[in-house]
Amino acid sequence: MKFRKTNHLKGEVTIPGDKSISHRAVMFGALSKGKTEVSNFLQGADCLSTIDCFRRLGIEIENRPDLITIHGKGLDGLSAPAGILDAGNSGTTTRLLSGILAAQPFETTLTGDASIQKRPMLRIIEPLSMMGAHIESLGGNNCAPLKITGAPLKGIHYYPKVISAQVKSAILLAGLYADSPTSVTELAISRNHSELMLRTFGADVRTEGTTATVFPRPALQGQKIRVPGDISSAAYFIAAGLLVPGADILIRNVGINPTRNGILKVAEAMGGNITLLNENKEGEPTADLHVTCSPLHGTVIEGDMIPTLIDELPVIAVMAAAAEGATIIKDAAELRVKESNRIDVMVENLSAMGCDITGTEDGMIIRGHHPSDRLLHGAVIHAHDDHRIAMSFAVASLIAEGETEITDSKCVAISYPDFYDDLRKLCGN
Ligand code: S3P
What is the chain's percent helix, strand, coil content, to nearest 5? Predict the structure, then answer.
């Protein structure tokens, strides 16, 4: 797909449902008794992979455009699937489902696409094995396909080396089936959607500092869940709104959970003008974001802030490319094991657009240009089939001289199927 520079970005966009929360609503609904109704569910390929896996585990799920209905059967209601479960491109499906499968009285094989088969799974194999499950990486490389043989589990207190909500959630989900409480203490807090939503379904989940503890065998009950808009999808419009000259946009229905809203803090630190409107603080908090074009300057992004904006770092790098002075991103080695190696892929593509960027072991250094002197130019971009890379470069193209072509632009369907339409509308065409 081809893109051109614009000086027009105006109007409103309503952000589709949060990917992390959509996955969890289906999973927790399946493990609850009775009906769970989910509105504003993200109809992205990743969440559809979760629906497909749970259908194959014996759960009836109706998928209508405005409402997902899950006919849950309780903690012991899953049945052995015929054949291999396919998580597609979804790390959340693979890792969280592994935690659930670890406790089932049957054996399952779980795999996914070429990207999933390269992503590290030792981070869940290790703690789930400590709890008593048997998990074999069939390729012997600690990646999927994983053969998971469920077993009676024991509670553990685990201290993951990586800060990952997928790891934390896999352990807590296994902990629902354990013989005693299960705790996870993180080095810094990762997104807490599992803890919040498990509580909504009736689980006893306690949190203190960076420790989350789940008590076993809750009687989970079906719920009505309204999924807030995904701040990780809103991020592309936040960046575009700050960068495109004269931009003035309203981004509606954005989840602003404090474990996810790091991009708002970074945008503010860079000089971005974002106003929160219509804030709703109940449950998962939401707001509308009013964003106007702002001159940006470089900043340092590191430490505990990283997990709160991990998926937004590619588009933050684009913001940095058009900011005055250097932006330094550290403590983000996890970027190397996402859907693509996001450090290498950002360096490859931003360099192709004329940006001065250096990749480091755990981040990037981006030496931006003065906003009045935006020096990015169009290029052929290879997103490496990574949805967040494709959307980041669609944003970069809006401020780049000449034409930008994204060769594998279709991958946005993973998390935001209507992304290009929504962007085009704001650009007035
Ligand atoms: C997610 C957690 C994050 C994030 C991913 C979704 C989740 O991954 O990058 O897109 O839904 O829990 P990690 O937990 O591996 O950091």
Answer: 35, 25, 40
